[in-house]
Amino acid sequence: MMPKLRHMLRDDDITHAEQKQILDLGMKFWKNRYYSRPFEGPQGVAILFDKPSTRTRTSFSVGVAELGGYPLVIDKSGSQLGRGEPVEDTSRVLSRMNSAIVWRTFGQDLIERMAQYSSVPVINALTDDFHPCQILADFLTIAQHCKSTDLKGKTIAYVGDSANNMAHSYLLGGAVAGMNVRIAGPLGFLPREDIADDARARAAETGGSILVTTDPQEAVKEADCVFTDTWVSMGEEEDYELKSNLFWDYQVNAELMSLAKPDALFQHCLPAYRGKEVTSEIIDGKQSVVWDEAENRLHAQKALLTWLVAQQRGDESLLGETA
Ligand code: CP
Ligand code: NVA
Questions:
Q1: Atom of ligand 1 nearest to the CA of 59
Q2: Is the CB of residue 68 less than 8 Å from the CB of residue 37?
Q3: From the centroid of its chain, how far is CA 69?
Q4: Ligand 1 centre and the CA of 66: distance in Å?
Q5: Tens of pLDDT, residues 93-143
Q6: Which atom of ligand 2 is found nearest the CA of 128?
Q7: Which residues are CB-neighbours of 174 under 8 A, at least 6 positions away?
Q8: Which DSSP helix (H) or strand (E) runs through 217?
Q9: Going by CA atoms, what residue is nearest to atom 8 of ligand 2?
Q10: pTM score, two decimals?
Q11: In a designed cystine with 308, which of 33, 121, 150, 227 is the match (CB 3.0 to 4.6 A)?
């Protein structure tokens, strides 16, 4: 294995086989929290937040510690980046002292600049456009339930704000997995065309398919897993009243869920707004796997970090039997 610096900035930065390898590794970490310890030393991993977080902050902090490393969590208000220091300078400094950089920020262009100047792997912990770590956790949750990381042919449906980071990541991540991805949202809140096109191109290679529709029933019909997300993402709080009234037809409730397969799973990246994008009956009901999903952030991100440093070091042994 030749050393190669890789980053995870969007869901299609990895191939179908690589995604499966990361999910296989996630399964190993699920069964054994200390399966691999690539950051023993301890080595630092910089974890930066420009937006709030509970799950991402906890799972990366605990995850890096369990990988033998030191999680250096930096909030925007406490860093020079927050005062306007260039991303390029921050990247060069952080990568001199850390083994990886994890960043939750606004524009995708920012994390691309971070990666361009970094000598260590950079992970997107959510931008306005994508949330690839969440998708790995969500797919790991499906894999645990169907007892296989081969997700080809599974049908997933996402309903709600389809112009947001989650919708975009389901499109790309699902296409990489070879899934049938269905996305439903109201006009004006459908995925960006270039991202939907990238997903279609990738799906053509993996045997998956892409459907973008305004019809939530069409999307959910016979699905293996139904997803939704908040109607108002971080940074859009001012649009709350305006936006939250546009999505009522896309609420995941018992009636909509009944169109999916009888044993379909329900997932939500959280935080959730009961009575808005999902009813309590569904999120707290028996098809919901949202707590497994939240826990899987830990296992999936440890797998991703381990996989990325294995590539960078050219050290296959870090991957164990999944190599
Ligand atoms: N799902 C998710 O990313 O949650 P946090 O915003 O709490 O990190
Ligand atoms: N779309 C949501 C996801 C939160 C994890 C947001 O960006 O706020």
A1: 8
A2: yes
A3: 22
A4: 20
A5: 999 999 999 999 999 999 999 999 999 999 999 999 999 999 999 999 999
A6: 7
A7: 135, 156, 180, 181, 199, 203, 208, 210
A8: helix 216-220
A9: 233
A10: 0.98
A11: 121
